[in-house]
Amino acid sequence: MRGELVMAAVAYAGTAIGEQVYVERDGVTSKSFIDPWPWDEDDDKRPACTPTHEQRVRLLEKAGALIAAEIDRLLLEKARGYAR
């Protein structure tokens, strides 16, 4: 599946917010958030409860690293002539 790194980054960043994630669609704000974790639940090491300050920082570091990895992957794909 394509986009796994980005989906994992979103999952880490969303978890860093805390227990409630607010999503606005069509002018309506709700607490619904479909967790985009792209891999098996056994691979998910995010905290199950509200993260501490230190955990939030670490979650955002991981999200940033995953975004950087996806950027690198896309640039390499283009350099090899595989870009769409």
Report what the structure shows.
The chain is mostly helical. It is built from 2 helices and 2 strands, in the order H-E-E-H. A two-stranded antiparallel sheet has the order 1-2. The longest helix is centred in the last third of the chain and has 27 residues, at 53-79. The protein is globular and about 45 Å long. The chain starts with a helix and ends in a 5-residue tail after the last helix. The mean pLDDT is 86.
- The total count of helices amounts to 2
How many DSSP E strands? Answer: 2
What's the multimeric state? single chain
Arithmetic mean pLDDT? 86
- H and E order: HEEH
Structure classification: mainly alpha
Low-confidence stretches: none
Radius of gyration: 15 Å
Strand order of the largest sheet: 1-2
Strand content: 5-15%
Termini, distance in Å?
16 Å
How helix-rich are the residues, as a percent range?
A: 40-55%
- Outline the biggest β-sheet: 2 strands, antiparallel
Q: Give the overall silhouette.
A: globular
Topology:
Elements: H1 4-17, E1 23-25, E2 28-30, H2 53-79
Antiparallel strand pairs: 1-2
Helix pairs in contact: 1-2
What does this entry show, briefly?
It is built from 2 helices and 2 strands; from the N terminus they run αββα. It has helices at 4-17, 53-79; strands at residues 23-25, 28-30. The radius of gyration is 15 Å and the shape is globular.
Jot down its keywords.
84 residues; mainly alpha; two-stranded antiparallel sheet; 2 helices; 49% helix; 7% strand
